[in-house]
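Contributing new records

If you add data, match the layout below exactly. Sequence lines come first and carry their own label; structure lines follow with theirs. Keep one chain per record. Anything else will be rejected by the validation script.
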Amino acid sequence: MPPTTNDVITNLKEQGLSLPTSAPPLFNYVPYVTSGNMVFIAGQVPINGTGKFDQPFTGKVGGDVDMETASDAATQCGLNILRQVSDAVDGDWSRVKRCVKLGGFVNCHSDFTDMSLVINAASDLMVSALGEERGKHARFAVGAPSLPAGFCVEIDAVFEIDA
């Protein structure tokens, strides 16, 4: 059975989390595109929209950003992704069939190799918010020499929905 709006919101609330407000894109792109039964979410950076995380998420993971902070940043990216999905389905989570894929970028030095551990925080969020069946997804996690505005993490996503 697809998740309901109450299920997703309750699942987040049980973790002390909530959906942030929608942030407008800063440049020449849209936050998501719906094509048929797929929603493509633009890369989300860890902009604080919930008040849960209060530190800036900038710097290089494994250097001036520790693993806990990087995981918090990935969680914030995941919350921003879920906000965009909610906007794409007009708040009707019963239309969301599954998270298909996450793509994670970690701002790190060339010898850092734990990108998967960082992005796993967003993967865990998808499963806890949407449930095991709809939250499990394919994914990549790669290191990058830099990210926009110096953010330590950026994550994009693809979701399947009822069109």
